[in-house]
Amino acid sequence: MSQLLDKETLKKMIRENVKTLYRKTLEAASAEEVYQAAVFAIRDVITDKWMKTHDEYYEKDVKVVYYLSMEFLMGRFFGNSLINLEMYDEVKEVLEELGIDYNMVEDAEPDPGLGNGGLGRLAACFLDSLSTLQLPAYGCGIRYHYGIFEQKIENGYQVEAPDNWLENGDPWGIKRNEYAVEVKFGGNVRAVPKGNGEYRFVQENYQSVIAVPYDYPVIGYGNNTVNTLRLWEARAKNKLDLKFFNEGNYQKAAEEELLASTMTDVLYPADEHIQGKELRLRQQYFFISATVQRVVERFKKHHTNFHELPDKVAFQLNDTHPTVAVAELMRVLVDENDVPWDDAWEITRKVCAYTNHTIMAEALEKWPMELFSRLLPRIYQIVEEINRRYCLELQAKYGMDPEKLRRMAIIADGQIRMAYLAIVGSHSVNGVAALHTEILKHQELKDFYELYPEKFNNKTNGITQRRWLLHANHGLAGLISETIGDGWITELTELEKLLPYAEDENFRRRFMEIKKANKVALAKYIKETKGIDINPDSIFDIQVKRLHEYKRQLLNVLHIIGLYNQLKMNPGMDMVPRTFIFGAKAAAGYRRAKLIIKLINAVADVVNNDPTIEGKIKVVFMENYRVSLAERLIPAADVSEQISTAGKEASGTGNMKFMLNGALTVGTMDGANVEIYEEVGKDNIFIFGMSAEEVQAKYHDHYDPWFIYNMNQEVRMALTSLIDGTFDQNTDLFRELYDALLNGCGGRADEYFVLEDYADYARAQWDIDKAYRDQTKWAKMAIVNVAKSGKFSSDRTIRQYAEEIWDLKPLHIED
To answer: Which positions carry N6-(pyridoxal phosphate)lysine (predicted)?
Structure first.
């Protein structure tokens, strides 16, 4: 255990903390109370390292990267912190000696939904890697009171409930009132003469909120580095207007407080209405302005020359949400520190770097000028000036080409295009998988690649093996360390040493025994939480990710319907029993995605309760998909569903987590699947469907889904069962899905080529069935996948960011 805490001291601290915090004995305390007491005990160790880390950063005046993200899906802190402190086994022993079940304590911690999916989880993996690699860093985001939402399933439908993760306090966060800053919205801008022929711009008549930071420790594995996740919370400048209160106008008295608390209540408010759009823009500017102001203040403690800022600070914009940082840094430099525009622009571009996470046009944010200029009047002026100078640059390069100017301008057609501002205002633009970056360069951002080829680069995403193998899959992690040593924990390419063991009968047997134990544990959990009996000897086929049409959960469920129809016609059909497991949240306003969830649950109700198919198929929808649930599901998976339409998924990171845990991928050649295929070879992955190039060509061809409907009986029967009452007495309930696939329903028919790829998907699924029957072959394939997953560590990704984009050097913190 840590030099600072022996077992007896830790026991004493936990007992004392329970008494101090709850006025109880340990024996009378709930799991949640023991959890809080244990956190405060280990925080002693963490805080010493944390203070030392930041003292060293400050004294040595090192360069720091600020990872700016609307989302941080951290998962539970407790278990991961113990693993990185190398205290996990000892704390488990201490709790057991105190008569406490460690798992109950870990499960008592809320799993905060401060992210939507892959984007937020990637940010969390990156923070873990930054600390493990001893790189000076802050994650900067928002301390949402309720996160995204807690998903409940009622009568098969998704219902959103507040995710009240702060209900029982927040033992990990430390409030830093001394770093609070003011953030201004609305009002007007007045030009004040400086007396030298220049003007200073001053915002007046504004509303403002106070941004208060809460700091969370991010612990490096096996070292003394503790970086910081800084989440900003909004507080009213004036808590209560007593004048209005005393007049009995209580609502008006608390107006300012309500405005402030609303700002950091919920991640991604529904934005189908203007109020939602405005709140989302407020959130983005709020955490960016707070961060930029604080960073510049810190820089000024050591420096007077702003040209040194890029040597000390890097901003990484995690997708388009933080793009307003480009204009805010300009505002702070020009308006508040008298830096000349051209100098400020050069500094800003050197500081900022942009990661593009999407090929989907609707996710490249655009803001209506009316809203943007009203809410952020000075920022709007700055963006207008950036755009004016940039358009002059375009004219100088391309001449007067109105169509090209309109296509590339930051402001056009009444909208501000945030992705374009990010590209123009940054020195680096990266995609997140090799295929994704090529699509950006040659399709989506082709004009910008021609203009700034030197800015574009690829950084294939990664995941942290500390959480996704060492913490999530103790059995497999133990077998690997016993076989090849534990070097893989910090250097994942060490897993390559497992390759010869694919031919070792004893290793294969133990490997498959661990997989079976994980499946049995998951089956038990599903029985307890869902009341569904599943067969641990069936193939566990899992698709867990955000619900979006391009991710094609609909293809998966249509294939299940196809299999069910075949079993109804031929009950003796020879197939390995299969358990299909889904987990997904749909955005609150995304109606069709929510209808797909209803369909999955409707299919589950029919299939799971039909005795004639003899349990050959089971379907389970796990509600409220989150990090802690993923840690149960992924180690138990046999098959990983990565079936997005080729050319639509930027990278994916779930595919990497499944691979690392010995699941085999069934997928399209999309995102990082392409690189997984390159690592494992064609015999250790199940690839199907059109390529990205074929998808592009299909968009330009005449594509008629009715042709497939007419020619493929399995497809025709599956689609018919959507509207013939098989899955709901209301035959109109799923008609929208039927129409969207065949007729378009307000858009292109079968926009994501579900029907086009169906036959090849069904073929790949039978290939899986056949391969699984040969358990020796399956075990070899699974072991090869684990052994070849070394490339997909976020440590590798972060090293590349640090060396190629940030010019960031590690700093070793001594004991």
So the answer is: 657
Residues 342 and 265 in one domain: no
398 and 330 inside one domain:
yes
- Nearest C-alpha neighbor of 655 from the set 521, 477, 463: 463
Q: Is 357 a catalytic residue?
A: yes
pLDDT digit string, tens, across residues 796-806: 999 999 999 99
Q: Which of 54, 349, 626, 657 is catalytic?
A: 657
Residue environment code for 320-358, b if the CB has 16+ CB neighbours within 10 A, otherwise e: bbbbbbbbbbbbbbbbeeebeeeebbebbbbbbbbbbbb
How far is residue 252's CA from residue 275's CA, in Å, rounded to a whole number?
19
Q: Tell me, yes or no, if 49 is annotated catalytic.
A: no
Burial of 560 (0-12, 13-18, 19+ CB in 10 A): buried
For 230, phi then psi, to 5°, come to -105, 115
Domain identity same for 200 and 324: no
215 and 84 fall within a common domain: no
519 is annotated as an active-site residue: no
Q: Residues with Cβ < 8 Å from 395, sequence gap 6 or more?
A: 405
Q: Can you give the pLDDT at residue 1?
A: 45
pLDDT at 630 over 90: yes
The Cα angle at residue 764 between residues 761 and 768, in degrees rounded to 5: 135
Encode burial over 86-95: b for 16+ CB neighbours within 10 A, e otherwise: ebbebbbebb
Contact assessment for residue 61 and residue 312, using Cβ atoms and an 8 Å cutoff:
yes
Q: Let me know whether 593 and 507 are in one domain.
A: yes
- Give the tokens for residue 715: 């497809």
Termini Cα distance of the chain: 15
For residue 657, indicate whether it is catalytic. yes
In sequence order, the β-bridge partners of residue 200 are 192
* DSSP 8-state assignment for residue 498: G
> Per the residue annotation, which of 348, 358, 464, 653 is the catalytic one?
653
Check if 76 is active-site. Answer: no
pLDDT recorded at residue 412: 96
Catalytic residue among 551, 578, 585, 791: 551
Q: Could you tell me which of 125, 216, 69, 315 has the C-alpha nearest to residue 798?
A: 125
Catalytic residue among 145, 349, 546, 791: 546
Domain holding 224: CATH number? Answer: 3.40.50.2000
**pLDDT at 154 exceeding the cut of 80:** yes
Residue 242: domain span: 65-75+136-302
For residue 310, give the nearest of 210, 427, 156, 402 by alpha carbon.
Answer: 427
Is 545 one of the catalytic residues? yes
Per the structure, the count of domains in the chain is 4
The reply to whether 352 and 438 lie within a common domain is yes
In order, the DSSP letters of 212-259 are: EEEEEEEEPTTSS-EEEEEEEEEEESSS--HHHHHTT-HHHHTHHHHH
